[in-house]
Amino acid sequence: MIALGWWMAKIFACGDVVNYGNNTGLLCDAKLESIISGADYSVCNFEAPIAGFGRPISKCGPHLQQDKKTLTGLKEQGFDLVLLANNHIMDYGRAGLKATIDAANDVGLDTVGAGLDFQSAYKSLVRDIAGVRVGIINACEAQFGVLDGSGTIGDAGYAWINHNKIDAEIFSLRKECDFVLLFAHAGLEDVHIPQKEWRSRYKYFCDLGVDVVIGSHPHVPQGYEAYNKSLIFYSLGNFYFDYGYAKNYKNHSYALMLHLEKGRTISFEPVHHVTNSHKVFVCEDEVDINGLCRSLVENYNEKLDEISLAAYRHINRQLISSGSQLPFDGTLFGSLKELVATILGRRKASYKRLVQLHYVRNETYHYAAKHALDVLSKNYVA
Fold first, then answer.
1. Over 70: is that where the pLDDT of 326 sits?
2. Is the distance from CB of 44 to CB of 82 less than 8 angstroms?
3. What's the whole-number average pLDDT of the chain?
4. What's the pLDDT score for residue 248?
5. If pLDDT is split at 50, 70 and 90, which confidence band does 3 have?
6. 235: which of 54, 185, 222, 327 fits an S-S bond (Cβ 3.0–4.6 Å)?
């Protein structure tokens, strides 16, 4: 439903936020704060729960949390909504999620994408913004914390992007809103092109009625494309992310200022940013967005083959290691690492089962392995 009128809403959207090193919670410099607070509504992906609540859940991979002041700082600097459908929001269980939602609400931030039960996790958000009625959906690929139907009634968790409930939410919002935005958290990390399966899924969302799909999770920027009258931004990369190995990352990427005017096609302006000394700055060294968009077309299949093969080698090593009773992953260096981890007691049978679950359940890894095996099978001679 697109109503005619002269109202226009400006919505600022950016990528992943994980804060360990900024103890003020004020992540943005004055210029960027002015841009964010100048929007009618501003959104970021809050990639981990606040610290001090809950216990680490059983999972493979790191458990992330962040300073509670981050929520206060985001609100003070102009943010209105934190997205919670991501692969780390449940790292400290139900208690960690509840504390995060409560703290966000206490400072006046909206939340969407995760909840203390199925219905609240999948509930979309509707807001009247500068005279424009906007529906917002947030969902993530299948990782630890996903509510994909395999748990028990009453489980806390986040919305799964491939659940048919997402499709139903789009239909519902299309009837009552001027615009529908879907924020997706999915894809291979640290690569600059999306997988074809996610491209197909996002276009399907647009066919159902989504006006803009905005992606995160790859940690690096990716291109965008127009699809019919909709826009798909495959990854905005990190906004502020300083956990562990990434503590010195520049997070050179871009955010969006979307212009939503009733009766008109959505337009946007990129906001290029970089992290320095635990703050995010507007930067003049622009991300080559045009180049990222060209990579969705030029040599796309060859690049997809390459990243899928690399991902498959990683997946295969993980499955070999987790399926073996010996400290072995198929490589000499990796096997030595597994031996050390086994001696230190970090490779118990239960942990190995979690690794297997992770790589078997996750659709991004499934897509990568399938694509790689398709490529490898073409070279097979009987």
1. no
2. yes
3. 93
4. 86
5. very low
6. 222
Q: How far is the C-alpha of 382 from the C-alpha of 128, rounded, in Å?
A: 62
- In three-state secondary structure terms, 228 is coil
Contacts of 185 (CB under 8 A, 6+ apart): 45, 83, 85, 86, 87, 138, 139, 140, 141, 161, 215, 216, 217
> Which of 224, 258, 223 minimizes the C-alpha distance to 14?
258
Tokens of 102: 């409560």
Alpha helices in 107-237 (DSSP H): 118-122, 164-176, 196-208
Using CA of residue 50, residue 54, residue 59, residue 62, what is the dihedral sign? positive
pLDDT at 350 over 90: no
Cβ–Cβ < 8 Å for 189, 238: no
> What's the Cα-to-Cα distance from 17 to each of 6, 45, 59, 209, rounded to whole Å?
34, 6, 21, 28
**Per-residue pLDDT, 228:** 96
Helical pair 300-323 and 363-378, crossing angle rounded to 10 deg: 110
Whole-number Å distance between alpha carbons of 7 and 263: 9
Q: Is the pTM of this model over 0.90?
A: yes
* Distance between CA atoms of residues 276 and 117, nearest Å: 38
Cα–Cα separations (whole angstroms), residue 297 to 223, 249, 292, 300, 377: 10, 28, 9, 5, 24
